[in-house]
Write a structure and sequence with these properties.
Keywords: Kinase, Pyruvate, Transferase. Pfam families: PEP-utilizers, PPDK_N. The structure is a single chain. By secondary structure, this protein is an alpha+beta fold. It folds into three domains: 152 residues, Dna Ligase, domain 1; 112 residues, 2-Layer Sandwich (D-amino Acid Aminotransferase, Chain A, domain 1), CATH 3.30.470.20; 111 residues, Glucose Oxidase, domain 1, CATH 3.50.30. The chain contains twelve helices and 21 strands. It is globular.
């Protein structure tokens, strides 16, 4: 039943695992692992009717089904072969990481899982995450019957992690301390770098307040919050790897990476589904160059002309609408068509809102975070990392959001 990650194909292992397998075969540094293939999902869910059920009911129904005989023993053997007892358990759906849709963060994954029995317990949750409201809302009619494989890989205890978008001639990199979840989910405003194969063109220091290690979130020391988390040698190595991956896979790539004891690991690669704003490549009047300048962050330090708020231009376009300050899912019912979503950060549960709102403003996060990627896929403007946006902007206030310049202006 178990498939080596190096042997993964799209048909048996889903898009994410298949790409990782291709990278392993090409000699790239990918953490060792294996795949619980789509056939196991089919065997467990055969005969079940999942459509129309709530997410909790789906989870309970799938979890109530017996796993195939011998699977637990195979999981234990496979974990012994990769030499790890602590692993990451990750989704690899049939509709993930495609050229037209990233499905960024839609499906559940688990870090720091210890032991084969615990891996087996996580499988139903990963499978069931295909049927959450956010995942169902994201899918197109052609994806009405998705299937799920599950990747099990060595858990990387990252010192630094992040995301890079390849491009010619420039690569954009965002990173922060600890695991990459902080960057991907937009939990911090990360360091941002523009790099070529031979030079680091731009460095912007983010306000990296927290870090995630395994399942633990902690505060970053004050002197590390304003210190760049990657040096030029590491940045040039990442940029070179990014270009090599893009050449190997045949096009520009959105790549997640981790650095552990100065070893770079590639955790994911997928086609870039929507181009970065032009300002992300050329710089804007708001660009802060060099290590001395930083996006430290107070609202006053990021104010533009005439009292506008300034952040990272995450998705291009201009929109006007009523600001809706949203603190959590309990506020979702206040969102209406054409509103401007203002929040701390977004996570995958918020994805359906992107099909309703006219634009997005977040207090934390960067150009390569969940909010920015999903906004670009929905072709709506977004400005990320605007400190104190939730208190500076008032609920119902008319605002103009410019995702080209990274500014938010109150109209009244």
């Amino acid at each position: 039943m178990i498939v080596s990650l190096s042997d993964a194909t799209p048909q048996q292992a889903g898009g994410k695992a298949a790409v990782l397998g291709q990278l392993i075969r090409a000699g790239f540094p990918v953490p060792p692992g294996f795949v619980v293939p789509v056939d196991v999902y089919r065997a467990v869910t055969s005969g079940l009717s999942l459509r129309g059920l709530g997410p909790d009911d789906v989870r309970r129904l799938i979890a109530s089904q017996p796993l195939p005989s011998g699977l637990l023993d195979e999981l234990a053997d496979a974990m012994t072969q990769i030499g790890e007892n602590m692993v990451a358990v990750r989704s690899s759906g049939s509709n993930e990481d495609t050229a037209v849709a990233s499905a960024a963060g839609l499906h559940d994954s688990f870090l720091g899982v210890t032991g084969a029995a615990a891996v087996a317990e996580r499988l139903p949750a990963v499978w069931a995450s295909m049927w959450t409201p956010r995942a169902v809302a994201y899918r197109t009619p052609s994806d009405a019957s998705p299937e799920m494989a599950v990747i099990v890989q060595r858990h990387i205890n990252a010192d630094v992690a992040g995301v890079l978008f390849t491009g010619e001639p420039r690569t954009v990199i965002e990173a922060s301390w600890g695991l990459g979840e902080s960057v991907v989910r937009g939990l911090v405003t990360p360091d941002n770098f523009t790099v070529t194969r031979h030079d680091v063109l731009e460095r912007r220091t983010g306000d990296k307040q927290t870090r995630i290690d395994g399942t633990v979130t902690s505060q970053v020391r004050a002197d590390d919050r304003g210190r760049l988390c990657l040096d030029d040698r590491q940045l040039l190595r990442l940029a070179q790897l990014g270009h090599e991956v893009a050449e190997s896979l045949g096009g520009p790539q959105d790549i997640e990476f981790a650095v552990e004891n100065d070893q770079v690991w590639l955790l994911q690669a997928r086609p870039i589904t929507a181009s970065l704003p032009t300002a992300a490549h050329t710089g804007t009047s708001a660009s802060l160059r060099g290590t001395a300048a930083s996006l430290r962050g107070t609202a006053a330090s990021l104010r533009g002309a005439a009292g506008s708020l300034r952040g990272t231009a995450g998705s291009p376009g201009v929109a006007e609408g009523a600001a809706r300050v949203v603190r959590g899912p309990e506020d979702f019912n206040r969102i209406g068509p054409g509103d401007i979503l203002v929040c701390r950060f977004t996570d995958p549960a918020w994805t359906p809102l992107f099909g309703v709102v006219a634009g997005v403003v977040t207090e934390t996060g960067g150009l390569l975070s969940h909010a920015a990627i999903v906004a670009r896929e929905h072709r709506i403007p977004a400005v990320l990392g605007v400190p104190n946006a939730m208190t500076t902007l008032h609920d119902g206030q008319a605002v103009t959001l410019d995702g080209n310049t990274g500014t938010v202006q109150a109209i009244s």
